[in-house]
Each structure stands twice: as structure tokens, then as C-alpha cells.
Specification:
Blueprint lengths: L1 H10 L5 E6 L5 H16 L3 E6 L17 E2 L4 H13 L2 E5 L10 H7 L3 E6 L10 E4 L6 H12 L10 H14 L10 H11 L5 H9 L4 H12 L2 E3 L4 E6 L1 H6 L22 E8 L2 E8 L5 H9 L2 E2 L3 E6 L3 H20 L2
Parallel strand pairs: 1-2, 1-4, 2-3, 4-5, 5-6, 8-9
Antiparallel strand pairs: 7-8, 9-10, 10-12, 11-12
Bound molecules: guanosine-5'-monophosphate (5GP) and manganese (II) ion.
Amino acid sequence: MNQAIDALRALLSQPQLIVITMHRDPDADALGSSLGWALYLRRQGHQVTVISPTDYPANLRWLPGMETVLVYEENAASRKICQQHIEKADLICCLDFSALSRLKDLGKLVQDAKATKLLVDHHLEPESFADLMVWDTGAAATAQLIYQVIKKLDPALFADARDIPLAECLYAGIMTDTGSFRHASTTPEVHLAVADLMRTGFEINRVHRLIFDSSPLSRLQLLGHALSKIHVLHEYRTSYMTLTAADLELYTSSAGDTDGLVNYGLQVEDVVMTALFVERRGEVKISFRSAGDFSVRDLAHAHFGGGGHKNASGGRTSLSLAETVQRFLAVLPEYQSRLQSV
Ligand code: 5GP
Ligand code: MN
């Protein structure tokens, strides 16, 4: 981290053209860390463009600076503008992902760009495309790493209300990635970082309500529908849910509507692993969650071309929904003893 900070400090001593990008289907950590970093860099006099590969959830629209975010795949014009920004950038910051495939079509543009590349991430096993890396799998969120970076660059931050927008962005990322401070990743350092952010005087309750208590009714009905057909496999201490393209259409689901839904599968007693299979745009997106020492990162990586963290991972297949579930069921015996010993 210190080496990267020294290099960054030197690089940022002159005004730079900077692009910040994040993983596809961005969540509050991807967007919160990106927008927080953008706020900080703009204040230092840099020209910053934030690019999301895909559309983002409606409950994150309030994040400070969101109106400046370009969505790469929105239309031909946005693709062109994003491409131009990437080609002329001095620095490209890759936040909350470690494999270029997580950028979809944007990955190739970033790979080919002449810019210096900075990776800030907490996922396992980064690819080696970045020149500078702030990478710590022990961090609860990328927003926590951005907090550490900007505190090193400017220790005086967060002393007053001037930094409320920055604090809200980083808090949104840390709070959601720790599951509201309940995952094992919630260390004393996490609480100390949040305590520091709170010195600005931002309203914690407002952020929680904006993120969690602002769902369209259809999203809650989609949740109810998914829960009503949950499968529990007691012999594997596993549960899973499926959503078909028709389900999503029936509940007029939009970007982010299925985020967080997978976590409900872990609330079933004695269940230590759960999966959610969502059929969308000709592919099946899978989310895995686990408790304790069982690694869903390894399962996602070995069988579904995915990755993530030990207790939260994802992947995707181009198989049908039924075939994807069949594959999942077929690999479970391989993991039975590990699931039993959690
Ligand atoms: P979610 O289930 O919330 O989409 O993702 C859970 C975790 O797994 C996140 O940390 C996310 O970055 C990671 N993840 C989700 N989908 C994929 C994927 O297709 N590939 C990889 N490498 N990681 C993924
Ligand atoms: Mn994250």
C-alpha cells in the first residue's frame, strides 16, 4: 500500500485526466468507492470521469455525484464518449474488481489504454494488469481502502460538514459490503474508519433508509415470489432460489432488483450455503453466499467461471436455467463433507 501511495502522490502532484471504473452491475461499494474517490480527486484539481460498464440500481441514484456517471453500454454515443475518455486518460482507476472480464466489453479498452492503471480492490487473486495496486483481501470493502488512501494523502479530511458527500459515498460502500456491520469482515478498523467518517455529521439513518427502505413495491413482491419457491437440501445444508426471465418481467424488475435477495437463503436454520440463479438476457447469473469456513469463492471459481470472496461469490453460465441448476446439484456431493463440518 505505501509504495502505491508514494507513486500516487507523485502522479497526482500535477493535474491529470483520470477515468474511474468499476465492475459491471455495480453495487454500493463499487459506486460509493468510485464516487468518493472522484470527489476527492476533483477537489485536488484533476479532471475525472466515472464510467460504469452497465446500468446501476435505482436505490443508489442519490449517491453524491451520481449524475456525472457515464454508463458505457447505454447507447452508441455513450460507448464512443467512454472510449475517448479511456484513450486519452493519464490514469485509469479500477475499483472493486480484480479481473478485466468484470468490465464486460470495457475490459479490452482498459487493457489497451496507454494510461497508468491503478487497482483498488479487496477480492481474491487479482489479475496482473495494473501498474499500481492497493489490494487487501482483509479489507471489508473497497470503500474502506479508498478511505485509507485518501487519509494517507490528506490526514485532515472528515473534520467537518464540508466532507459529508465524501463520507456518505464511503459509508454506503462499507455499510453494504459488511452486511450492515455483521459479516466477519467487520474489524475494529472498519468501525474506526466509520467513526472518523461520522465526524462530518452525516445522517447514518438517512443513508440506510435511502438504500434499504426505498424499494418499489414490485421489488418486494419479486422477493416474496422467490422466497415462496425456495428449495432446501438438508443433506447438503444448502438452499437455493431461481428466478426466470418471465418472473422478472412479471415483477417489472430493473437493474439491482435482485441484489441482496440471495442473503435470505442463509436465514433458513442449519443452512450454511445458498445460491440464487437468475435468468437474464440469455445467460444465468449466479450468486452464492455461505457461512463460516465454507468457501463459495472456490465453488464459483471451479464450476461457474466466477469468483469473489470466501462467503460471497458469483458466476454466470450460458446454459439454460434448468441446466445450470442441474450442474449445481451435480457438484454438491463433492462438497458434502465440507458443508457438514461448518
Ligand atoms: P453478487 O452475488 O452480489 O453479485 O456478488 C458477490 C461477490 O462475488 C461480489 O464480490 C462480486 O464481485 C463477486 N462476483 C459476482 N459475480 C462474479 C463473476 O461473474 N465473476 C467474478 N470473478 N466475481 C463475481
Ligand atoms: Mn466490494
